## 1
Amino acid sequence: MTAINDVTEVTGSQKRSRWGSRLDRREGRTAFFFLLPGLIGMVLFLVVPIIASVVLSFTNWKLLGTPQFVGISNYVRLFTADPQFWPVLRNTLFFTAEYLVLNIVISLGLAVWISSLKMGQRWFRVVFFLPTFTPGIAVAIVWMLIFAPGGFFDFIMRSLSVAMPSMLTDQTLAMQAIIIVSLWAGVGYNTVLFNAALDMVPQSYLEAARIDGANAWQRFWKIRLPLISPTLFFGTVMTAITSLQVFDQIYVMTRGGPGNATATLGYAIYQRGFQNFQMGYASTIAWVMFAMIMALTAVQFWLQRKWVHYDN
Amino acid sequence: MASVTIRNAVKAYGSMQVLHGVSVAARDGEFVVLVGPSGCGKSTLLRMIAGLESITDGEIDIGGRVVNELEPKERDIAMVFQSYALYPHMTVRDNMAFSLKLSRKSKQEIENEVRRAAEILALEPLLDRYPRQLSGGQRQRVAMGRAIVRHPAVFLFDEPLSNLDAKLRVQMRGEIKALHSRLKATMIYVTHDQMEAMTMADRIVVMRAGKIEQIGSPLEIYDHPANSFVGGFIGSPSMNFVDGTVVEEGGRLVLRDVSGTLWPLGDKARAYIGRQVQIGVRPEHIRVVEGGIAASVLNIEPTGSETHLQVEVNGQPIVVVVHDRLAAEVGASIGIEADPDRVTLFDQQTGTRLS
C-alpha cells in the first residue's frame, strides 16, 4: 500500500514538475518577447560594437577597403614602435592624477562649505551643478576664448602685471588649462554628491562627538569623512574613469598640442581613427585604455577595504 | 560629581519660545528624571545642559560653574542618546576610547578605562565588534560605557530606553539604576514614560509646554499631584477625573456630578461646599462593591496580577483596578465605590490641587 502511495506521489510530483517546467518555458518565452526591444538595442549598439572593436584591434582596417587580420601586431607596434604612445600615456596619467585629486579635494571642500551654510544651500547646489548639464563642447569653446592668446585671461594677467606665457601655447601650462576647464565642468557633480552624503550623516553622531570632545576638524576627519566614505569612493571611481577618457576639452582647446603636450589616450583614439583612418590601430588604443580603466578601478576596489566603511 | 542648577532657563527659536523660565536643581549624586509629554521641552532642556543647544536666557550651573558659554566638552558631562549614536565605523573598543584618545590619554590609561567600563557593563566579549553586530540592549550598554570611561561629573540620558522592547527596557532600567548606585554620579534622565520616571528617579520633574508643573519624589508626586495634569500624567492607568459640585447630603460630603451621581468625599472637602470642583481618583482607590455607584462594564483587561476594568457611570468613563479575579462580563452592571479619603480635589478652572 505504501509502495503504491509512493508511486502515486512520485508520478504526481513528476506531473507537477513537467507542468511547472512547461509553465516556466511559456513564461520565459513571454518574458523574452517583452525584453526584446531593449535587448535588440543593447545587442546592436553595445554588444556588436564591443565585439567589432575587439576584432578590429587585430586588423589593419583603414575605414575604406577590407580589414585584414594582422594578429597582435597593432599591440606590438603600440608598445614598442609608436613614438607617441608613451608620451600620450604619460599625459593621460598626469591629467588623471592631478584632475582626480583636485576634483575630489575641491568638491569635498565645497560640499562641506555648502552643508555648513545656514541659508542658500539649495541655491549654491544649483549654481555648482549648472556646469554639469552644460554641453562639454560649449564649455570648452568658451574657455578656449578665455585662454586664447590675447584673450581674457592674458588681459587679466597683463592688468595684474603678471608676466606669463599664453596658457594654450605653453608646453606646461596647456595641460593646466585643460585641467582648469575640466574642474570647472566636473566639480559640481561631486560637490552635489558629497553634499548630499554629508547631509545624510545623522546629527546625533556629530553631537556625540562634540560631547566626546572633538573639535570641528576632528569631527570632520574622524566622523563625517569615514561616514561618507562609500559616496567618496563612488565619486573617486567615477571621476577616475571619466578623467582617463578625457577628450572634449582637448579636441576643442588644444587638439593635443602644443606639440603633443595635451594629447591623451582619448584624443589619440580620435586622431588615429578619424584623422589617420587607422581604425584597427585606434581600436587597439581603445582596448588598452579600457584595460587601464579596469585595472585602476580594480585597484581602487581593492584599496577601498582600507578606507571605506559600509554600515551593513 | 557635581550639582546642576538651572535658573530661569529660557529657550526660544526666533519668536517661538519653547522653555519659559525653567528653574530646577539636581543635587550632587542625585538621579533626577525630567518627564512630560512630547513637545514639553524636556529634551531641549537636557540639550541645553549638555551644550548642544544655546541658552536664550537664564543660567545653567554645573558644579558651581556657569556653563552657558562653554562648549560641551568643557562642561564635564557625558550623554547617552536615544539613538545611542555609536559611531558605526568604530568597534565597541574604539567607540568607548574615542573621547579618551581626543584628550590625549596614554594608551595604557585608555585600555584600563575601557576595560573597567567593559567589566562594569559586561561588554568584554564585545569589545572588537562593530555596533551593527550588537543587539539593542548591547548597543545601549556600549553607549553607557562610552559615558562611563570619561568619569564625567554629570550623566545625561535622553530617552535612552525608548528603542528597546518592553522586557529589555525593564532590564536596562535596573541596570541604569544599579550603575547610579555604583558610580554615585549626578544623573539627569529624560523620558516620556512615567513608569521609568517613577521607578528610577530620586526626584521627578514633571514638565508641560515648556514649564515645570511639579518637582518631587516619585511617591510625593503620585500621592499629592500639584494639579490635574500631573495627576493624570503620572500613574498607569491614569487618574479618573469627575467634574461636579461639592454638597452635603444627609450629613455626608459628596460630589454631585452633572448626571446627578453622588461621589462620597472625605472631610477635607468640607471647605469647598457649594463650589464646582474636579475630583481625581486613582483607579486602584476604587473598589467593586455591591450597592455602590451603578456602573456598566465596557471592557475588562486582565494583566494577571490585577484586572483593569473600564466602566461607565452615567456616561462618564471610569477605570477601576482590582487585585482579585473578577467574574464580571462586558455589559454587566456592577457597583463601585471610591475611597473618600483618597479622593483629590482640583480647581475646575485652573486644575490646581485644592486638598
## 2
Amino acid sequence: MTDTTDTQTAVPAAAKGPKSKQDIGIGRRRFAEWRLKMYGLFAIAVAVGALAVLLYSIVSQGAKGLSTIDAEIEFVYDPALVDREGDLVKRFGEGADLLASFAKLSKEEQAAVVDRPRKTSYRPYVQAAFLKRLGIDPDDESPENLKKQDEALALLSPRMDVLVWQKIQQDPTLFGKPVKLQFLLSGEVKAYLDGIITKKTPEARRALKDGSLALIDKLVADGTIKYRVRWELLTNKQSTDPEDHGLLTGLIGSAYMMLIVLVVAVPIGVAASIYLEEYAPKNQLTDIIEVNINNLAAVPSIVFGLLGLAVFINFMELERSTPIVGGLVLSLMTLPTVIIATRAALKAVPPSIREAALGVGASKTQAVFHHVLPLALPGILTGTIIGLAQALGETAPLLVIGMNAVVSNVPTTPFDESTSLPSQIYEMASQDKVALWAPVTSASIIVLLSFLMIMNLTAVFLRRRFERKW
Amino acid sequence: MTDMTTTAAAAAAPATDPNAVGYKMTARNVDVYYGETRAIKDVSIDILDRTVTAFIGPSGCGKSTFLRCLNRMNDTIDICRVTGEIKLDGGDIYDRSVDPVQLRARVGMVFQKPNPFPKSIYDNVAYGPRIHGLTRNKADLDEIIEMSLRRAAMWDEVKDRLDEPGTGLSGGQQQRLCIARAIATSPEVLLMDEPASALDPIATSKIEELIDELRQNFSIVIVTHSMQQAARVSQKTAFFHLGNLVEFDDTSKIFTNPSEERTQDYISGRFG
C-alpha cells in the first residue's frame, strides 16, 4: 500500500517540471538503442558486402576456368612413326610391311617400340593433322601459306604432342589407325572466347594475331570447337600451360596431410585435453601449460613452418616437399585448436553427470570414458573438423618446407615429393601470364573452398545430429 | 503443523528401541579442511541402521560437506582434506586398503539436482550393476532393474518405456530414477543431498513417501533445508552450525524440546 501512495505523489511532481526531465532521458536512451542497432546493421552489411564481392570475383573468374574447349580432329598414327629409329626395318628387312610386322610383335615388344620415338617426334604429325582439318596445305611452303600455317598453329596447345604420345603409350595397337582425338587448344584461344582477349586489344600485345582470331570465329561457327566441363582440373597433374593444368598432385598431397593430421593431432590433442581437464591437479604448472596452449593457437603459422624445417627436415632428415613433413607441421599447428575445442567440450558436460557416475561407484576413468567423453564427442568432432579445415587452407608453413615445388609424379605414399592444394593455388597466382592463369586459379580456389565448405557443413551436421540435452 | 508433529512422533518410535537397530556408521572427531579453511570441526556422530537421519542447518554450515565424507565423494576435490575416523560396520573407510570406488557401491548417493545419464531408463539403472559386475546374465540384470524401479515406486510408470531416455522424464520421476539407480547396486547406506529441493510439492511428497519405504532396507542420511521435511521423514536429526555439530538427537526431541539454544533459535526461524 505504501508503494502506491509513493507513486501517486511522485507522478504529479515529475509532471509539474517544465518539459519533464524523465521524458528527455527516455528519448535519449531510445536514440542510443537505435544508434547501436544501426551500428550493428552497418557492420553486418559491410561484412556481407565484402563477402559478396569476394565470391562474385572468384565465381565469375572461376566459371571460365571450370569449362574448357576442345576440337575433335581425326589423327592417324602414321606407320612412319612406328619405326622412326629403324628397328623394325633392321629386323624384318627392307620393304616389309611395317604395320603387319608390328602387329605380329608381342605386347612387351610393341610397348618397347612405341616408347622409342620422343614426344617431340609427334609434333609434325599433330600439326599436319590440325592444318589439314583447317583446310591449309601443310606441305605448301609459299610465304603466304606459311603465314596461314603460323596463324593456325598458334591455336594449338604446345602440350598436344605429349597427349598424343601418352595415348599411344596406353594402347600401342592404335598404330596405323585413324583415331578421333580431342585436340587441346592453347590457353589464348579460351581467353579470347572468354572475352579476356578481344580484337580491340592491340595486335602487338597478344599472342594470337588477327588471322588466328578469325580462324577461331570460323571454328566456333562450324561447331568444331565445343565447350565442356573441365574435369582435367581434378584429374591432371601440374603443367606449365594453363590449358591442361590440374590439381591432382595437390589434392593427393593435401589428402595425405589431412590423414596425418587426423592420425597425429587428434589422438594427442584429445588425450592431452582429457588429462588436463579431468585428471591434472590445478596448480601453477598446469596454469602455465594452459596459458601456453592458448598462446600456441595464436602463433603465426609461418613460425610452425620454420620449426618444421628445423626439426623435421634438418634434424630428423625427412625429405623436403613430402606430405609427411607437411602433415607433421600442420599437426603441430592444429594441436592447440583441437585441445582448446576438446577442453571446451569436456567443460560443457555438466559436473552432475560426473558426480552421478562417481556416486554409483564408477572409477574416475569409467566416469570419463562411459559418460563425459561420449557427451563431449559432438563438440570434439566439430572442433577437430574446424581444425582440419584450417589446416587444409594453410599455405605459409608449406611454402617454407618446399611444398610449392612442381612435381612430375603423383605421390603414391606420404614420403613422396608432393604439393598441396593451397600452395598450388599460390603458385598459379604468381605465374607470369596473369590473364591466362586467372580463370584456372579461380576455379582451383572454388575447388578448395568447396572442400572447406563440405568440412564445415559436416561439422554443423554432426553437431546437430549428436547434440544431446540434459 | 499438527500433521508434521504427529508423523514425526510416529516415525520416531522405532528408533527408541536400541536393540532393534545397530550402528551402521560411526564418525569420530572428523575435521574437514578446504585448503586452510576448516569446514567441519570435530564432528562425532553415529548413524543407525534402517533409520533416516536428517542433517539440518543454515547454508554453508557444512552439512553437505560432512555427508560427502561418508562415501568419500570429497576425494574428488583436490584441496579437500579429511581427518578423524569414519567407520562403516566397524571398518575405517579412510583406510589405505579401502577403494573409494567399492565404498561408493556400499554407500550410494542421490544428489540435489536430478542427474540421470542421457541414456535410456534401463541403462541408467543398469549402469551400477554393470560396472560392478553384479549380474551374470541379462535375466539377472532385468530382475535387479525391476526390483530397483519397484523400490523407487516408479516401476508401473515406466515399465513400458524402459528404452526411452531418462532425461525425458519429469523432474520428480528423474529424481526417483536416480534413487533407483543408487539402490540398484544394493548399497547399505543411502546418502541424499537435498533430494527434493529442486522439485514441486507433489513430487516432493512422493520422494518423502519413498524415503519412508526405503527405510525398511537401508540406512538413510538426508541433508535438507526444509525443517518440515526433516521432521516428516527422519527419526534422528543432527543440527549443524558453522561446521560444528550443535545437537544430535531424536527428531521429535529436536523439534519439540531442543537442549541447545542455537537449535531452538534455528528451528523457530530466528536465523538461518
